[in-house]
Amino acid sequence: MNSILTPTLALVVLTLIVWIWMYATRIPAMQRADIQPQDAKFPADLQRLPDGARQVADNYNHLMEQPTIFYAVVFYIFLAGHTDQLHIYLAWAYVLLRVAHTLIQCTVNIVTLRFSVFALSTLVLMVMAAREIVVLL
User: Which of 13, 26, 36, 86 is most enclosed, with most CB atoms within 10 A?
Assistant: First the structure.
């Protein structure tokens, strides 16, 4: 738990869990809606699925977006040899906030709450990046 790389593994595991959750909800929802796999060529074709199935799929997509910056920053910190306890705490904070974001989006999906958690996770990411910029200056 003292490695800055461990939070990246945790986020990968979260993403894989959401992938399983997505198909566990999406496939039965498609069957109930009589949507054939080929009918889902485009994301808009799945708009008639229930909110629960769409929310999980949207969250999976979100886990493919901003967390890529997290992975890049963590690997940069690690490879540059700048890992310290604060960076490790920040990395775990980011992951825990993404877990909270996932749970909110995939269940109650209260947008203002979800956005607040997203904004806070973004601030954590900004602090991690800013600390590295300061080292360069």
Answer: 26
